[in-house]
Specification:
The protein has no helices and 8 strands. It has about 100 residues and is an all-beta fold.
Length: about 100
């Protein structure tokens, strides 16, 4: 993840690739995962949307209804390996990952 250093290296990714993960697949943790800063929090009734900054990138997280997290908090983000998708940075085409 751009600007995040070694802690946010994505296995199987190479320069020129883009990574994508659905907002609802991202898990929150106080202690584990890639460190991020909460930039905004929007309560939508059934869900809460968080905009988090990791390195120089912003990541949208769709979380549960009740979150004690506040804007400015540091929080860990993670996701299951099979939830991550890689794309060619030039064409935008999804790349198949080796099993």
């Amino acid at each position: 993840i751009a600007g995040a250093g070694d802690a946010a290296v994505i296995p199987g990714a190479a320069p020129g690739m883009l990574a994508g993960v659905r907002a609802e697949e991202i898990l929150l943790s106080d202690t584990d995962g890639i460190r991020s800063i909460v930039l905004s929090k929007e309560y939508l009734g059934a869900d809460t949307l968080l905009c988090c900054k990791v390195g120089t990138e912003k990541i949208l997280v769709r979380a549960g209804r009740v979150l004690p997290t506040r804007v400015g908090d540091s929080i860990g983000l993670s996701w299951p390996a099979d939830a991550l998708h890689l794309f060619d940075g030039s064409s935008g085409r999804r790349l198949e990952r080796a099993s």
